[in-house]
Design brief:
Strand content: 15-25%
Distance between the termini: 16 Å
Helix content: 25-40%
Shape: globular
CATH superfamily: Divalent-metal-dependent TIM barrel enzymes
Order of helices and strands: EHEHHEHHEEEEHHEHEHHEEEHEH
CATH topology: TIM Barrel
Number of helices: 12
Mean pLDDT: 96
Structural class: alpha/beta
Length: 331
């Protein structure tokens, strides 16, 4: 296993993560990949990106497709989760991007299939030394107004997700590109959702159903341990999820994040102070044969830090690296 980083693309950040001992990264610039011209990535642009990353002594181990966690209104290809007739056109652009990535030597792509963005309450909670934590409490948001799209039921969401998987995974398999889907962050009450939108990838059973949509080894997860923790009511359920998906070789990338709390109420804390035993989690990844990358995800905020959170990310990267060294030398 390797410590990695999801990098906000800039020369400074690439140099920074290499200084922190990181070798494997996931990054993608906001512009210049071909989306502006044709709506899909170009192979030569992806190759230039890979070469630029490699010039810093890094490996571009994964890339994020522009199927983001920012909400449907910010999607490059919104029709996939809107379920409109135009979705075939958007899916074709996804497939063209997969082909481009493969030709440029990228073998893992990460993506989201979501209508809602990451949902948090507006205020942050205080932490050690004056840092603040991102926070979620469903009770405070339960009466928020209906989404402009209206109700999106579980059946509607599943139809759109299944349609995408059936169209895209055979193409990914053809080109040898693993597709890792992120879970819905956070999970919401079943049958209710949030603002009328149900989050079917926001519970363990939903993620199991998603994996069962295809038996291809190229269909798997960007396994966000933090989001998985948000679905659970006890830490044991998190370790069980690692074992379930990891033993089936469906974990392609890991967001190694800790929380305090659980389903419907939590805060995102530093990895050493949450409810999940991160050493036990890492041993579980090792037991199931996961040999990929673990990256810090959301980090606490400090007024002493940069907007990118360089200090917090350095702590998290060092924490992961130290845990890896300790655990990988165990008998």
């Amino acid at each position: 296993m390797h410590v990695g980083s999801q990098v906000a693309y800039s020369d400074e950040n690439l140099q920074f993560v290499r200084q922190m001992g990181v070798e494997y990264i996931d990054t993608c610039p906001a512009r210049g990949m071909g989306l502006e011209e044709d709506g899909y990535w170009h192979a030569d642009a992806v190759a230039r990106l890979r070469e630029h990353v490699e010039s810093f002594g890094l490996k571009l181990a994964a890339m994020h497709l522009p199927l983001t966690s920012g909400g449907i209104e910010h999607q490059v290809w919104p029709n996939i989760m809107l379920g409109t007739p135009e979705r075939d056109r958007d899916i074709e652009k996804v497939c063209r991007s997969i082909e481009a990535a493969a030709k440029a030597g990228i073998t893992t792509l990460l993506y989201n299939l979501a209508i809602l963005p990451v949902v948090r309450t507006k205020y942050r909670t205080p932490g050690r030394g004056g840092v603040t934590y991102s926070h979620f409490n469903y009770e405070e948001l339960a009466d928020d107004p209906l989404h402009p799209l209206g109700r999106v039921t579980a059946d509607m969401a599943w139809e759109r997700i299944e349609y995408f998987v059936k169209q895209v995974i055979p193409v990914a398999e053809e080109y040898g590109v693993r597709m890792g889907c992120h879970q819905h962050d956070p999970g919401m009450p079943e049958g209710v959702g949030y603002r009328g939108v149900e989050r079917v990838l926001g519970c363990i059973e939903g993620v199991k159903r998603f994996i069962a949509l295809s038996d291809s080894p190229y269909h798997g997860l960007n396994f966000c341990q933090g989001t998985i923790s948000e679905m659970c009511t006890s830490p044991d359920q998190v370790y069980e999820a690692i074992r379930y998906f990891g033993s089936r070789k469906r974990i392609f990338w890991v967001h190694f994040r800790n929380i305090r709390g659980g389903f419907l109420k939590f805060e995102e804390v530093f990895p050493d102070e949450g409810d999940i035993d991160m050493a036990r989690a890492l041993r579980t990844y090792k037991e199931v044969g996961y040999d990929g990358v673990l990256v810090p995800d959301h980090v606490p905020h400090s007024d002493l830090d940069s907007p990118y959170g360089h200090r917090a990310r350095a702590f998290c990267q060092g924490y992961i690296k130290g845990l890896l060294q300790a655990i990988e030398t165990e008998a």
